[in-house]
ABC transporter permease (Brevibacillus brevis), 379 residues
Amino acid sequence: MKRFVWGRYWSVVKKEVIQIKRDRPSLAIALVMPLMMLFLFGYAVNTDVNDIKMVVWDQSATADSRELVQQFVNTHVFAVTEHASGYKAIESMLDNGQASVALVIPPDYARKLDRNEPTDVQLLIDGSDPNIARTATSNAQLIVQNHAMSMQGQRLQKQGMGELESPLSLDTRVLFNPNMESIVFNIPGLIGLIMQNVTMILTAFSLVREKERGTMEQLIVTPIRPLELMLGKITPYVGIGLFSFCLVLVVGTYWFGVPVKGSISLLIGLSILFLITTLVLGIFISTIAKTQLQAMQIAFAFILPSVLLSGFMFPRESMPLVIQWLGGLVPLTYFLEILRGIFLKAVDLTALWKDAMGMGIFCLFILTVAMLRFRKKIE
């Protein structure tokens, strides 16, 4: 077995640095693109549902009915945008998107309340968007129940019977993200996704570019080993990727207000491992593709499954077991656990070693396969 020669490795590093300096547009994209994507997706990827457009048909038109409507508005989940005078108008507004929810208050609403009789209000919900429909349903039920309890308590107080107390209460505490803001959950995931895509594409072109420029043959006739060549090619990009990662980390912390609660040094250390993994993945793609267009297509074919299977958009726990195993073949899956663990929960390596090990094994496996493919081409 031939030994690793540091001199040949450093020669490749110097050659790659010179090429990067000459290819300034690509360097600018590598540094600026992560910031642009973080700003764009940071505002776009928001699963919080607020100001659902609501149309109200208040047939009672009393202080009691207006108080009920105000209860909906006060939550900021609903926003009254229209008032209707019948079901036809409501159907028209739901059809053309003027409203997503319709609140129908019957004419005898206040009268029945005065008589202490049960009364019904109707909520019509546009179910074409399940996320909005679920949010509207759960919040509306909570609003009506709380309003009914409040009215019942006031009525009992007037009768001198004291406050109405529930025999059962639930003490709920939300840890790590007390306000349950989606941006707190999304920003760490976005940082991982952006860094994966940018760094992988950077090296996906490296060997292909050598082929297209006709310099691959010159490399092959030299005594350089596949490991020396590949490590030499990814080393400059590790520095570029780390600089970009620090930029998006600062923006995520100070612009979007998502601070890192855990160890910064641990986060940087594991991020370097992730960057090396995605750069090696790009090198592997480069050994498969024959042109830069093919390299781009293969890279995008990997990006889509990584978005869907890694837990970035959907919880992996709700996926079938086979799909969860497939998600284990994506390094982003492990890095998202690391990012969210350090960002939100301030956990240390004892809680993250399995994810770090999974990422390291994936990196070594892909590097070995890429070296074997490159050695085969040399032969």
In short: The chain has a mean pLDDT of 87. The chain has 15 helices and four strands. Residues 349-378 form the longest helix (30 residues). The radius of gyration is 29 Å.
